[in-house]
Amino acid sequence: MKPKDNNIIQSLTHNSLLLIAIVMLGMTFSSCNSDSITNSDSDNADDLYAVYWRLDTPDGRTNYVSLVDDLMDGKVDASEALEISGQSRFYAQSRSGHFFTGNGEELTITRYNISEEGKSIEKSGKFSLANQGVTSLQARTVFLSDTKAYYIDNTQGQIVIWNPEKMEIIDSFDLPEEFADGYKGYSTQLGFNGYQLNGNRLSIPVGWVNFSDATHLDKTGLAIVDTENNEVISYTEDTRCALATEPAFMPNGDVYYGQSERYHFSKQARKKENAGCILRKEAGANQFDQDYDPYMMDQIEGQKVGLSLFNSPKENHAYFRVLNTDKLEWSEDIEGINYYGIAWYTYEINLPKNEVIGKVDRPLGPSYAEQPFKINDDFYGTLKVNDEGEHKVIKYAPDGSYEEGLTTPGYISNLVRLR
After folding, report:
1. Residues 40, 119: contact at Cβ < 8 Å?
2. pLDDT of residue 118
3. Can you tell which superkingdom this protein's organism belongs to (predicted)?
């Protein structure tokens, strides 16, 4: 995968990030065990995608990796997918022919190879992050090459360097203390949808929430990491916008950060009548741009709360969520978890011009970003289609419309082209 492509998808395709799951239409898998899956029907090995999706149950959740040759048609079946139980994660490089899953209970990462014919998936290596002090596994892996990747760990405030080919840990180094979970009594919040990589400079934003006290730190931190020398170059903070960790990537290397949906867990945040802001970091900069006006909600008459940020298919444009306050009041008296509900409009913004274009013709969605997956130069997302929990892959058009595609029985966490 080219580093330039990776900018958009780091954990969009590994998630977070960055980020990834898809399905192969017409492929029938015999899953004798959770380590191997075999396709018996498809002869088309030209295009191959992976869909990582999940079913929530009273006892937890079960995750699945389905392989498909078409994202815009068909329906996947759990009985024909690779089943991964528990709090698992998914990581992949575009067109690599393999993917990785993380086991949240054992804190391990496992590699799966796909045969050249696209007919089988087999385990080919595993390592554990437990000895590095990692206590919670997230989808925050950045692939730098075929033999070097970063796992960004907020539990200890560190980056673990590992080799995706040999499946072994190479080394680790510390991030600033502000990235370690428990900093000043707060849970550290990192981005879900990818990380900006310009050359050998990796940008990692951080925010803070205390879920027990329902408070947050009213600022966002930013670390710049030298990926060649494996060290932190700088750390700065911006007090204009809290929890600005969700990215939209620009063709010129700039990146914009909208507020995390974790912001609404803070009663302190919901005391504010208006909420919503965006920070910009220019491609070669070490800090957020102080000349960029972070506030966009004053452009939308009658609306006062906007969160999240994710790329749209129109160059330099992005989408963000705006709360339908007729459906759900913005109030400290409401439990923060309720804001995950389907009560948010989608609005479009021209980021370099800082100009809100308007509401997009789309059904109400949840507070979190739709996780835009860039595949074949197109942008894909997901859409919940019924109360049974079924979701569809959707393909965005530049005019704000979308086309519905593949259906899964549960929530789609990630999509990636494997070949």
Report:
1. yes
2. 64
3. Bacteria
DSSP H/E element including 4:
helix 3-9
Tokens representing 384 are 């919940």
What's the half-sphere exposure (Cβ side, CA atoms, 13 Å) at 40? 6
Per-residue model confidence (pLDDT) at position 218: 97
At 245-270, the pLDDT tens digits run: 999 999 999 999 999 999 999 999 99
Question: Which residues does the chain have with pLDDT short of 50?
Answer: 1-45
Q: Return d(Cα 159, Cα 154) in angstroms, integer.
A: 9
* Dist. CA 75–CA 1, nearest whole Å: 28
Instruction: Specify the pLDDT at position 417.
Output: 94
Confidence at residue 186, expressed as pLDDT on a 0 to 100 scale: 97
N-to-C CA span, the chain = 11
- Residues 6 or more apart in contact with residue 406 via CB below 8 angstroms: 22, 23, 25, 51, 68, 70, 71, 72, 73, 74, 75, 76, 392, 393
CA 68/CA 114 separation, integer angstroms: 13
CA distances from 242 to 91, 228, 282 (A): 28, 30, 19
> Residue 243 corresponds to which tokens in the numbers above?
């929890």
User: What pLDDT shows up at residue 85?
Assistant: 78
Q: Which of 316, 407, 314, 419 is nearest to 376 (CA)?
A: 419
Task: Classify residue 301 by burial, with Cβ atoms within 10 Å: 0-12, 13-18, 19+.
Answer: exposed
Burial class from Cβ neighbours inside 10 Å (0-12, 13-18, 19+) for residue 44 reads middle
Q: Which residues of 5-38 are buried (b: 16+ CB within 10 A; e: fewer)?
A: bbbbbbbbbbbbbbbbbbbbbebebebeeeeebe
Q: How far apart are CA 216 and CA 307, in angstroms?
A: 15
C-alpha 300/C-alpha 357 separation (Å) is 9
Helix (H, G, I), strand (E, B) or coil at 185: coil
Count Cβ atoms below 10 Å from residue 57 Cβ, excluding itself: 9
Structure-token pair, residue 111: 């590699």
DSSP summary character for residue 370: -
